[in-house]
């Protein structure tokens, strides 16, 4: 049995974000605005056909207004 990860390079980053959903993307944008190095990884191989967020309050909108 061969090791499928034997050719995967090692990468060192201060912050690893697992998941590029709404929370992961907000975390990534926030870190980028503050100059913090990070890597966001997503497990799915292709984009979703529909958004995963089905219910939201005004809190995410207020949070995103900080970037405007």
Written overview of the protein:
The protein is flat and about 45 Å long. 0% of the residues are buried. The protein is α+β, with helices and mostly antiparallel strands and 68 residues long. The chain is built from two helices and two strands. Strands 1-2 form a two-stranded parallel sheet. The protein is 28% helix and 12% strand. The protein has a domain at 13-42.
Key words describing this protein structure:
alpha+beta, 2 helices, single chain, 68 residues, flat
Task: Explain the layout of strands and helices.
Elements: E1 15-18, H1 22-33, E2 38-41, H2 58-64
Parallel strand pairs: 1-2
Backbone shape = flat
Whole-angstrom Rg: 16 Å
Q: How many DSSP E strands?
A: 2
Which structural class is indicated by helix and strand composition?
Answer: alpha+beta
With helices defined by DSSP (H or I, 4 residues minimum), what is the helix count? 2
- Percent of residues in helices: 25-40%
Strand fraction band? 5-15%
Strand order of the largest sheet: 1-2
Spans with pLDDT under 50 lasting ≥5 residues?
none
Biggest β-sheet strands, sense, barrel:
2 strands, parallel
Average pLDDT value? 80
Query: What is the H-and-E element order?
Result: EHEH
Question: Which oligomeric state applies?
Answer: single chain
Report how far apart the termini are.
52 Å
In short:
It contains 2 helices and 2 strands; from the N terminus they run E-H-E-H. It is of the alpha+beta class and 68 residues long.
